[in-house]
Amino acid sequence: MAPASPVADTPSIDDLAARAAAVCGAWASSGEFGEYVVYERDGRWMFAARPQARIILTKTQVIVDPAPGDEGARTREISWAGDPADALNAALDGLGLSHWRLYGWVGFDYCAPHHGLLDRVQDDVVLAHLIVPGLEAFVDVDGISAPGADEATLERLRELAERPVNAGSEETIDVGNDPDDYRGRVATAVREINEGRYQKVILSRSVDVGFDVDIPATYVRGRRGNNPARSYLLHLGGLEAAGFSPELVVAADGMGSVVTEPLAGTRAFGRSPEIDAAARADLLSDEKEIAEHAMSVRACFTEIESVALPGTTVVDEFMVVRERGSVQHLASTVSGRLDPDAGPWRALGVLFPSITASGIPKAPALEAIYRLEPQRRELYSGAILVADSSGELEATLALRTIFAEGDRAWLRAGAGIVGQSRPEREFEETCEKLGSVAPFVVRAAR
How many alpha carbons lie under 13 Å from residue 12 in its C-beta half-sphere? Predict the structure, then answer.
């Protein structure tokens, strides 16, 4: 295989991000590689396409499309019940692949079996959609590479990398309307919290974009304006999404470590140095935000502890401020040594959905979400994930994302509701979070 083509001569981090996002956006926009997942991690962009195997998990079945060439290969539909981690592990064992890497997503409803809420999920809802790609291409500081690809494919990837992506024009998306009474739903949650039904719940609201969106172009533009923990772009099973996630749900490194990174507490960012500094100081001194964050960290500690070897769970970092696009958050890191008897998929099940996208205690908070939110979350507050046969698994929280399916495109954002919450402030927080994506949305070319 020919050597990697350089992205630039010693590019800065910002230059690399802009260039790599544009390259992946061009590959995605070309339509030449079928369904795909783009995932950015630690200065490297992964483009996974041409699925050679696929696993789709529904409420009652796991559907397995095995790898081509597998003797007697055929699509299998297998009934399952109980723990979805067991269903996914069995499906992976049945692929007939000794080594694999997996890309895809798990939707919010993946949590339902763990918490006795499966009756809230419609029969045709997809809980997870995962692929083993036939093509993996990478963009990083060393350039473009595609291990295992033939020379013609690599050359075509290089050619497409120079193709400009739809630049779009300024679009205005009104995120300030409240057609489904978000403020009223927050007031209901505050009342239920003060009645002792749960301690915290994250309530979200959806905003329809109102026009056809070029999702890859939105990813390219949005990555220039965001500083995410992870970014992603995907088109699987009719669902498209581009997002700039502020936090991980869980990461297992395949060598024993398991980590989660809860964020809770938000203020706007990017207005001016003086305003940003004042907002940061306010965030670090706000009694409600501090209490909400400490509550989240304590819950995450308990969850990590349940899948870690005894005595290994620690809070590595507590209540620092991290800047993520148009907002800044209180952030912590909790880790442990993963119990081999639990494994990465069980860890995902325990930590999913993130405490910071569900609530405390998790089960009654999830019940409140199903009851108080008028629209299904689908992928919102689910996760985009990468996993492999060595035991590595990383799932990033699906927030700060634009979604498109059929003739609809939409944004969604939420806020953490506790007993001290004020409905107007929580609505304002959702507007601040929607501002991480809304200004970068690109209208599809006619």
Answer: 4
The closest of 4, 51, 2, 42 to 23, measured between CA atoms, is: 4
Which residues are annotated as catalytic? 247
Instruction: Report the sign of the C-alpha dihedral through residues 195, 430, 229, 378, in that order.
Output: positive
pTM higher than the cut 0.85: yes
Amino acid residing at 95: L
Please report, in tens digits, the pLDDT of each residue of the chain (446 residues total): 344 444 444 456 688 999 999 999 999 999 999 999 999 999 999 999 999 999 999 999 999 987 555 555 678 888 999 999 999 999 998 887 889 999 999 999 999 999 999 999 998 899 999 999 999 999 999 999 999 999 999 999 999 999 999 887 778 899 999 999 999 999 999 999 999 999 999 999 999 999 999 999 999 999 998 989 899 999 999 999 999 998 999 999 999 999 999 887 778 787 788 888 887 887 888 888 888 888 889 999 999 999 999 999 999 999 888 877 667 878 899 999 999 999 999 999 999 999 989 999 999 999 999 999 999 999 999 999 999 999 999 999 999 999 999 999 999 999 999 999 999 999 999 999 999 999 999 999 87
**What amino acid occupies position 169?**
S
Q: What share of the chain is helix, strand, coil (3-state, %, to 5)?
A: 35, 35, 35
CATH 3.60.120.10 fits 13-256+338-440, yes or no: yes
Residue 191 DSSP class: H
Both tokens of 438, joined, read 């809304």
Amino acid sitting at position 271: R
Both tokens of 154, joined, read: 């690599």
Q: Which tokens hold the place of 60?
A: 């009652």
Residue 228 C-beta-side C-alpha neighbours within 13 Å: 32
Q: Kind and range of the H or E element at 119?
A: none
Question: Does residue 135 contact residue 146 with C-beta atoms inside 8 Å?
Answer: yes
